[in-house]
């Protein structure tokens, strides 16, 4: 999968839960290898849009299309071509950190340079490999989730408020992670207007204020 970044076209998309529209008439384009920040206040619909772009949910109206190179992907193929990280993402609490990384790499291919030891060091958890995930602090769990995402061999990275639970040092670590580990892949970040979450981003798309 290495070397093929994901391109996405969102065409007049809307999403409805019951009778309530959480977003409507959204159109945007992500070229392969580009970076995009989706900005909005809490409840604006940015997480819903991110999930539509990941292929996790289907739009109620409009269409989302994906491609890698000249190959079109359908919605069922997209989740296995991306990595996704969101606040309080479900990690397996009873596994040790090392076991969690090993399981992740059995389920999803890792970048060639990303063995278990590398991911432990990348997440600043080299001394915590034997510790159960449930015993980590929230910041440590967030670093683990981000390191798992960035070390996955994928065509695009989708991050929802990625600096949640990170302190000042953690936010500096995150900025370096983006700089060193994007590796030409497409990157989409949903953020509540925190510039530290989308350093060096090429394109910004913003939900209108209420």
Description:
The structure is a single chain. The chain is globular and about 50 Å long. The chain has a five-stranded parallel sheet with strand order 6-7-8-3-9, sandwiched between helices. A four-stranded antiparallel sheet has the order 2-1-4-5. With 210 residues, it is of the alpha/beta class. Helices cover 26% and strands 28% of the residues. The protein has a single domain (6-206), classed as 3-Layer(aba) Sandwich (Rossmann fold), CATH 3.40.50.300. Helix 2 (97-107) packs across helix 3 and helix 4 packs parallel to helix 5 (168-181). The mean pLDDT is 95. A hairpin with a 2-residue loop joins strand 4 and strand 5 (71-73). The termini are far apart.
The number of domains: 1
Structural class: alpha/beta
The strands making up the biggest β-sheet line up spatially as 6-7-8-3-9
The CATH topology name reads: Rossmann fold
The parts where pLDDT drops under 50 for at least 5 residues are none
Q: Beta fraction of the residues?
A: 25-35%
Fraction of residues in helix: 25-40%
How large is the count of helical segments? Answer: 5
Number of strands: 9
Report the top-level CATH class: Alpha Beta
What's the architecture, going by CATH?
A: 3-Layer(aba) Sandwich
Q: Which whole number gives the mean pLDDT?
A: 95
